[in-house]
Design brief:
Distance between the termini: 30 Å
Bound molecules: adenosine-5'-diphosphate, magnesium ion
Strand content: 15-25%
Mean pLDDT: 87
CATH topology of the largest domain: Rossmann fold
Length: about 700
Amino acid sequence: MSKRNDNILSSPVEYLKGVGPQRAELLKKELGIFTFKDLLEHFPYRHIDKTVITPIRDIGPDTDWVQVSGRLKSCEVIGDKRAKRLVAEIADATGNLELVWFQGVNWIHKSLSVGQVYLVYGKVSYFNGEAQISHPEMEPVSPELKDARSFLEPVYPSTEKLKARGLGGRQQAKLTHTLLTIIRETDVPENLPASMVKMLKLIPRYNAFSSIHFPASPAAYDEAVKRLKFEELFIAQLRMGLVKIQRHRFSKGMVFGQVGDLFNTFYSNYLPFELTGAQKKVIKEIRKDFGSGRQMNRLLQGDVGSGKTIVALLCMLLAADNGFQSCLMAPTEILARQHFQSLSNLLRDMHVNIGLLTGSVKNAERKKILSDLRDGEIDILVGTHAVIEDNVEFKNLGLAVADEQHRFGVAQRAKLWTKAVIPPHVLVMTATPIPRTLAMTAYGDLDYSIIDELPPNRKPIQTVHRYDHSRPQVMDFIRSEISSGRQAYVIFPLIEESEKLDYENLFKGYENMKAWFPEPKYYISMVHGKQANDVRETNMQRFRDKDTQIMVATTVIEVGVDIPNATVMVIESAEKFGLSQLHQLRGRVGRGAEKSFCILLTGPKLGKEARERLKTMVSTNDGFKIAEKDLELRGPGEIEGTRQSGALNLKLADLLQDKQLLENARNLAFDLLDKDPDLSSPENYSTKEYLRLLTGKTPWSKIS
Ligand code: ADP
Ligand code: MG
């Protein structure tokens, strides 16, 4: 009975009636359709309701997509080579309508015949006050149409090239229709447990495929989409869950069984504040992992300022209590140095050795650190990515913490495995640049903790948008904050493409600030990426020590920098920054008990999206809301760190629109795996088989 290798759906698309080698080549190139299955899963993005035909007279400014039926009265190519277009006129009993094509002109000209009656479908636009449709779909009205097989006709994504070769939306619909007549229910067997299908009231797969292409009614279409979206999300989550289980089962982890002197002493004597409930909860979750005998792979999300650093420190003390080394990795040299300083400060009265390793630690100093590390003299190594370079050897690395690096992906984690016989525990910390739905799909194989509470007494940051001409008032405001002992940041954009100009603006801005705030009453630090490390560090330190009141900088201070006395964040040319960047930058203030302010400065002309971003920033401080908005404005493919993630290859589901469905699918997938991690019960057989076909092997052997 085993037919899986000659399953009809794996047949090359060229063997489908009506395709052939030449069209097959086009389908591959233009749409990535190689097999029957690919064609089946090439879903229409819209359907045309064939029963509705609008009289031309009724077309008005509010008309959007429209179908008319009329006789072609004229059709001619006009313009020269460069601006060649095809202009046609169609008429019904109520009026005339202009149709126009700019591409594929000759081919379309040839295919149309004046005098013939056509069904015309397209989007109405206005040109010189006259309604017209550009690039409409044209179908000759013939008797055959009367018994059109469905009420709603599918429209597929196509390209001009395909249209020109007779593979436009209509023709694709014909192919899909042919395909559906030759496949049977057994070719698309159920892949979900029967009880789930029943509980969610899902329609059978064959019906779903059939109805998503050729629905008998809008309701039938909705049912089909519901089924296929759920299946898509469920299967993706199931695969992630299996990776997780696999790792839990086969990866050994070092056991940090005891809470020792270091942790306890620090906790009772040196902790500078009471931990928030959320911080305590997260530490508990991590301690559970440490005791489990499995390697921890945990993502810790917490909005800017929620206090992730202290959580990392406590975890590293636990490692040290159990005789293991840790490392803390930061994305920038500035942040690494800051962590080194603040950890050294917090631990100054304790017997814990901390080392700093970054790209700019050189020669003798570097040698000493490397050898101390090998000898186990260093308990905690703080640094940039330099920490996981090949020549860095630990005596017994037990825990690696990656700060503000949602891009600390699988490859980097794999590097850590080479640092110890048993892989170290991994904690990836990030403020919230990604919404939860994305985190679930892109990082779904990690365990997940969240700090969803800010330390007490934080006053919300007040954010305003000001135009450049209000600069004098902004400067007055900075002056008044400084006179009450506070400090201010002024940030300039630095974009790779316009780097030279941006640097000029930065230096000009610095000179300007000096004119507004002259020495010796005021001092200004400037920090940017082109400075030598020691110059930059001196400038940072002077600001930290309050020797300077203003810091002019690029986004090198975007993440992590923690100077609670600073209460004003001015962002110049704020329209040039993305939302998550703005939120991170704003997070540099509001870190102490004083009320803080963020001022977004822009020129007078703003695009629509920039306006939306500024509006969002002014209206909320909530990182999750901002991340959602970011996703909405840019789309998931653009969100940092997820671009290469295959996890986002969703054909139907939309992470924004289908949030609820995704949550459902995830919960159900993980519940199922809790009960039956090997998918060995008969109930789950069909799902297991489906995964086996999908990956070519048993579900878990290939995916990680
Ligand atoms: P982030 O999550 O952005 O990395 P940090 O760890 O830098 O946040 O913490 C932000 C600021 O809040 C720091 O100045 C830190 O000392 C302080 N902080 C952290 N936890 C608490 C707490 N429970 N109570 C009061 N202040 C805290
Ligand atoms: Mg931080």
